[in-house]
Amino acid sequence: MRAIASTPESIRGRLRDDSVHASLYLDPAVFERELEQIFHRGCVYVAHESEVPDPGNFRLSWIGRRSAIVVRGDDRVVRVLMNRCAHRAATVCQEERGTATTFRCAYHGWSFHRDGTLAAVPYVDAYGESFRREAWGLSPAPRVASYRGFVFASLAAEGLSLDDHLGAPVREQLDYFCDLSPEGEIVARSGTNKYGYDGNWKLQLENSIDGYHPNFAHQAFFDAFGTRMGVPLDIFRGNSLGRNRDLGNGHSMLDFRAYNRESSALRARIDKMRETPSGADYWEGLRQRLGANRALDVLTVGGTHMSVFPNLVVLQNQIRTIRPVAVDRTEVFLNPVLLAGAPDPVNATRLRVHEMFYGPGGGGVPDDIEMFRRVQIGLDSSIDPWIRFWRGPHREEPDTDGTLFGQMTDEVSQRAMWREWGRRMLEESPE
Amino acid sequence: MSVDRAAVESFLYREARLMDAHRYAEWLALFDEDAVYWIPSNRDDIDPTREVSIAYADRGLLEAQVSRLASGRAYTQDPPARLCRVVSNVEIEPADGGELIAHSVFQLAWARAGGQRSIAGRSTYRLRVRNGDLRIASKKVELVANDQVIGDLTFLL
Q1: Same domain, A117 and A182
Q2: Residue A117, domain extent
Q3: CB distance from A20 to chain B under 8 Å?
Q4: In terms of CB atoms within 10 Å, which end of chain A has fewer, N or C?
Q5: Can you give the three-state secondary structure of chain A, one letter per residue?
Q6: Is the ipTM here above 0.90?
C-alpha cells in the first residue's frame, strides 16, 4: 500500500484499546517509525553469550535495520559493535559466525581490534598530524546488558535499564528456561533454522503467543504427532487450565504452569524419564543444583512460552528472533538450545522434538507461515479495516505478581503487545 | 539382482516422479523399516545429536510427517504446489553388506500462490535390495541454500 503517515495523530487515530487499523501492518511510513521508535531506541535482543564462548568468537546480528557484530573481547566482555568501517562504511565482518583476530575492511585495508578500537590504517600519513586513532573505531552500541546470558542492546544512550525493561515476571520465565540445565546454563551453539515470509513482523510476534490458533492452524500436526510428542490435546481448548498472560512492557506468555502441575499424564512421563539411565543422571544433576521441589517444578513447567517485546520469543527448546526487513517482509531465526551438563540423549531429544514442529520443514511452522501470507492479503482487502482483539477482556484479571491473565484462548497477549506498541510509537522522537 | 547405474537411475527417476506428484504413500514405501531421512541445516556436515537439522526422521517420524502432508490440512499444500525436478549426475559406489551408495543432484521448480522458486541440492542414498526391489536405507539431502533464509519446505525432497 501507499505510505499514509506516521505522525502521532495518525497513529492515535488507528489504534484503540482493543482494536487496530489494518494499515498499521501495511503502511511503509508506520514501518519506518517502528524502526526508529522501537528497534533503534529500545532494548533489542541480539545474541546469547553462549554463542561466543571464547575471546574472538563473534556472530552477526541485527538491531532493527542495522548490522551488528556481537564479539567477545580478550577481556571476556561481550561487545556489540556496528558492522561498519569507520572510513567509508563497508561492512568489516562477512561471516555469520566465527573467530576473528581482527576485523579487516577489504575496501581500503583498515583493521580493528576485537574490542572495536582501530588497529591499523594503510598510508596513515595522509590524515596529517592531527589524526586521532581513538575517534576511528567501530561504534559500540550505546547500551548493552544481559540476563542469564541473553544479550540486549539499545542504540539510545538513555532509557529503561534491562532489568526494568524485562521486569521480574520475564526474568522468572528466563530462569525456568535456563534452570532446565543441571548447570543452570543453556548453550545456543546448535545452529539455526531460518525462514522468511512476505508479511509484517508483528504477525509473527502475535502468533507466537496466540493460544487460540493451535487447535485449528495446527490440527494436522496434532493429529499426526500428538501422541508421539506427548502434546496434550486439551491444553488449547476454551476450558483449559492454561492461561494467557500479560507480563508487562509488551511481553506476554502462554502459561502452561497450572495445567502442567495438574496433569497426571505429564507426571507419569517425567517419572518414566527418570527411570531411564540418562534420565536418572539428568534428574540427579537438577536435584543437586535446585533441590527436589524446584527440580520437579522446572521439569513440570518445562521451559517457558514467552514473547519479549519487540523481537524475542523464548519457547519450548528454542530462542526465536524476529527481524523486520520491510513492512511486508520478515525473517525469523530459531536457535534451539542445549542444556549444559545434561546427558547427550536428553539434548539430542530436545533437537528432535524441536524439528518435529519448528523450522521450514517442520510439522507446524509452515502452517503459521501460510496463515501470515493469507492474513497479509486479507489486511489489504479491507472495507471494514479494523482488527478486533475482543476475546476475553471481561474475564481478564490481575494476579498476585502484578501480571494480568485471562484464559488460554483469550487475546490478552495481543492487547498487551499493541498497548506497548502504541506507547513506544507515541513517545516523543529524540530530535 | 545385479544393480548397475541404469537401475539406480530408474529408481531415482521414479522417486522424483512420485515426489513431484505428491504421491506420499508410494514414496514412503520406498524406505526400509530402519531408514533414516535427513536434511541438515546450516551446513552439510553437522552432528545431528548436537546441532539442529531441517529434518531428521526415522521411519516412524517420516510416517507422521507424511500423514500430516496427506491430511488435506497442511495449509502450505492448500492449494498444492506444482513441482517439477530434474535428477542428474548419478554415481554409485559399493558399500558394506551388499548395499550401495548413490549420489545425485536435483534442481526443483516450485510454483504456488503467485510465486515461483528454484530449489537445488545434492542427495546421497544408501540403497539395498529387498525382495527384488531397491529400498532406501538412508537418504541425506544437502540443500544448496541450507544456510539461508528459506520459505516453506513442506513437500517431498
Answers
A1: no
A2: 44-147
A3: no
A4: C
A5: CCCCCCCHHHHHCCECCCEEEHHHHCCHHHHHHHHHHHHCCCCEEEEEHHHCCCCCEEEEEEECCEEEEEEECCCCCEEEEECCCCCCCCCCCCCCEEECCCEECCCCCCEECCCCCEEECCCHHHHCCCCCHHHCCCCECCEEEEECCEEEEECCCCCCCHHHHHHHHHHHHHHHHHCCCCCCCEECCCCCEEEEECCCHHHHHHHHCCCCCHHHHCHHHHHHHHHHHCCCCCCCCCCCCCEEEEEECCEEEEECHHHHHHCHHHHHHHHHHHHCHHHHHHHHHHHHHHCHHHHHHHHHHCCCEEEECCCEEEECCEEEEEEEEECCEEEEEEEECEECCCCHHHHHHHHHHHHHHCCCCCCCHHHHHHHHHHHHHHHCCCCCCEEECCCCHHHCEECCCCCEEEECCCCHHHHHHHHHHHHHHHCCCCC
A6: yes
Does A431 have pLDDT greater than 60? Answer: no
CA distance B6 to chain A (A): 31
Average the pLDDT over B44-65 and give the result.
96
CATH code of residue A81: 2.102.10.10
Domain boundary among A147, A174, A196: A147
Which residues in A lie closer than 8 A to residue B55 (C-beta atoms)? 355, 359, 361-362
Which CATH number fits the domain that encloses residue A338? 3.90.380.10
B109/A contact by beta carbon, under 8 A: no
Q: How far is A326 from chain B (nearest CA, A)?
A: 15
Regarding whether A193 and A141 lie in a shared domain, the answer is no
C-alpha of A208 from chain center: 10
Chain B residues near residue A336 by CB distance under 8 angstroms: 52
Contact A355 B54 (CB under 8 A): yes
What's the Cα-to-Cα distance from A372 to each of A111, A198, A357, B85, rounded to whole Å? 43, 8, 17, 28
- Contacts for A147 with CB less than 8 Å, ≥ 6 apart: A162, A163, A166, A171, A174
- Mutation to test the A interface, candidates B68, B71, B78, most A Cβ within 10 Å: B68
Is this prediction's pTM over 0.95? yes
Cell of A357: 514442529
A283 and A417 inside one domain: yes
Q: Out of B52, B74, B157, whose CB is closest to A367?
A: B74
- What's residue A260's pLDDT? 94
Segment B5-29, tens digit of pLDDT: 999 999 999 999 999 999 999 999 9
Q: Indicate the length of chain A as a whole number.
A: 431
Instruction: State how many domains chain A has.
Output: 2
Average pLDDT estimate for A277-306: 97
Least confident of A220-229, A296-305, A371-380, B90-99: A220-229
